[in-house]
Structure formats: structure tokens, C-alpha cells
Amino acid sequence: MTTSFTVPAIAAERLPELLRGMPKAELHIHIEGSLEPELIFALAQRNRVAIPYASVEELRSAYAFSNLQSFLDIYYAGASVLLTEQDFYDMAHAYLARAATDNVAHTEIFFDPQTHTARGVAIDTVINGLHRACVDAQKQWGLSAVLILCFLRHLSEEDAFATLEQALPLRDKFIGVGLDSSELGHPPEKFAKVFAKCRSLGLRLVAHAGEEGPPAYIWSALDVLKVERIDHGVQSVHDALLMQRLAQDRIPLTVCPLSNQKLRVFPDLADHNLGALLDAGLVATVNSDDPAYFGGYINENFTQTFAATGLTAQHAYQLAYNSFEGSFIEASQKRVFQDRLQEYFARF
Ligand SMILES: [Zn+2]
Questions:
Q1: For residues 64 and 329, what is the distance between their CA atoms, to the nearest angstrom?
Q2: 10-residue averages of pLDDT along the chain (348 residues)
Q3: Which residues have CB atoms below 5 A from the ion given as ligand 1?
Q4: Are 81 and 278 in contact (CB under 8 A)?
Q5: 211, 228, 300, 325: the active-site residue
Q6: Residue 255 C-alpha to ligand 1 middle, in angstroms?
Q7: 208 alpha carbon to ligand 1 midpoint, in Å?
Q8: If exposure means fewest CB atoms within 10 Å of the residue's CB, which of 167, 180, 233, 303 is most exposed?
Q9: 14-347 is classed in which CATH architecture?
Q10: Taking the complete model, does pTM exceed 0.85, yes or no?
């Protein structure tokens, strides 16, 4: 389904205000990537965990990555301060408070249990803390929030199976599974069996593909893993047939512009292909990925990308519309959000 709503003319200088205020869904946010240096330090102190940085400033200045791997190294170091259920709650609560301010109406949050279980933290601690924060977000801000469990692709499929088994007693606290971490050298098909199992259990399926990896990874995420949504997917522009497939099957892409800039997928934001993806009729969306590390939450992703690429208010509407369309909420609730969106643009 696509929209035919024509956005009234809006002056370029009012675009940032429009983008910040519009209701939107966030579909690609790693909760461990929302850990701000201040919270890392506070948790390190609370839990008496030693971290290899002397100050918040030193930690923040270490965020000068050159590629996905150098980012992941510091990301896992930051996650090491998370030990108790309250730590996971506090991390998620901080992100959700921020998302509410950014007018996020619905969010689907990734979490990486293996990052924590490998350190001896029980999976119940992780999931219960995150889930409690999601429940409270609905009460506190009317923000709907759900969880998606991600398998780390640099680990084995056996490890993913073991993680799934540990998580299944908490099945009612997450809606689906994803695949993240180091993409190159770890094609989706490595996880064919565990995704087939998850599919049989009725879990929703997504996977990172085509961030740094080739279009072939997007094909195998779709055809082997049978995912319903592609995380990133920006490399699809190098394969015309794939672009057709994504448009035809209305496969959402969860694009993360500031992450792409920081990890040098597109060193200059002005060269980002978000506009090309939209103009080709793809269900592209804007998301923050790891906002504490990549220089901005969802509204920063919108405002900086629009300023750099010259996207219009019509694109803004389409992106927000797509974010609800591409979400895993019920069709009737999607329509409620999309009506609210249209009303916002008509009134602006
Ligand atoms: Zn990601």
C-alpha cells in the first residue's frame, strides 16, 4: 500500500520543525547502542566494573570509528557495565524517554542477549529489565514499545540456537528475531536453520543485510531466511533486479543515515541514497541504529539528512508513513497512526 496524500507546500526553513514534530515509528535501534557515556560511567560505578577509560570525555573521544569492526569493539566494552535487571531497565528507560521527546509513537527495539549471556548475565535479567521499561513507556508517555531479539552473526548458528532456547520461556516478551554485528564474511544463510525454527514458532523475522555487505546478502536474507524487513539494505541500489523485488514485495528497509556516515558507508551525508530509494518506490524508513555512538537520535537523523540531501516535506511524510507501514503493529493500529500523521501534515 502506498500513499497518495499530497503534502501542502512547506518552506525549507520550517522543515526541521516539521520533522521533529511528526509522529513516527523507529524500527532499527540497538538498545545497547543507546548507552550514553554518562550512563556507562554511572553503571560502572554502581556495579564496580573497571572500564578502560578514565573519564566520560575520554570515552566520548574514543568514538572515532573508521569501520563497523572498530565501532563494535568499543560497543562491546560499553555493554560490559550492564549486570542487573535494573541496569537494563535504566538503559531502555533512558532511550524511551528520548524517543518520546522525538515524537516516536512506536518503537521496535533490538537487543543482543549473547553480548550479556557470554559475560555470565542470565537472559531473564536482560529481557525482564528491557520489557519492564517497555511496559512503563506505554503508561508514562503512551509510547508503544516492543522487543526484537538479535543473534550475533559473528558467532555460530549453534550459539544462536542455544540463545533461542534460553529465551523461549520468555516468548511473550519479544515479538521477533533479527541478525546483527559484523556483516562481512557472515552471510545470512549461515543462520538458515535457526531462522526456519523461529519462523515455525511464529516469530517476526528481520536481518541486517547490505550495510557493508553485497546485494547477494539481501537476496539470501529474503529467500533463505525469509525475513519480512531488511535492516540497512542501502547496497541494494547496485542491483536493479533486487530494487524491483524490494519495491514489488513492499519489503521495508530500515535505513540509518548517521550510522552510514559515521561508519563511512557514505562518508558524506550529501551522497546518501535515501532519496533514490524513496524515488524508486521502496519502503525506506529513517532510524538511529546506535544513537549514543553515531551522533544522534532519530530526529537528528531526519534533520541532518534532509539538510544535507535536500529532501522535501513530501519525502518526510512518505518516510513517516513507511515507518508505520513497515512496523509489526496490527493493521488497524497502523491506520490510526497514519491518520494522525496525515492530520499533522495537514495542520502544520
Ligand atoms: Zn543496526
A1: 36
A2: 77 95 98 93 93 86 73 81 97 98 98 96 98 98 98 97 98 98 91 98 98 96 98 97 98 97 92 97 97 94 97 97 98 97 95
A3: 289
A4: no
A5: 211
A6: 9
A7: 7
A8: 303
A9: Alpha-Beta Barrel (3.20)
A10: yes
All cell numbers assigned to 126: 536482560
Give CA–CA dist 158/168, Å, rounded: 15
Q: Which three cell numbers stand for residue 47?
A: 556495579
| Closest of 248, 244, 225 to residue 179, by C-alpha | 225
Task: Flag whether 28 is marked binding.
Answer: yes
Using CA atoms in the order 83, 80, 140, 127, what is the torsion angle rounded to 10 degrees? -60
Rounded to the nearest angstrom, the distance between the alpha carbon of 262 and the centre of ligand 1 is 13
Is 26 among the catalytic positions? no
Q: 144 CA distance to ligand 1 centroid (A)?
A: 20
290 marked as part of a ligand binding site: yes
Q: What residue spans of the chain are helical by DSSP H?
A: 15-21, 37-47, 56-61, 68-79, 85-101, 113-117, 123-141, 157-167, 192-200, 215-223, 240-248, 257-262, 274-279, 291-294, 298-309, 313-325, 331-347
Decide if 30 contacts 111 (C-beta within 8 A). Answer: yes
Query: Which residue type occupies 213?
Result: G
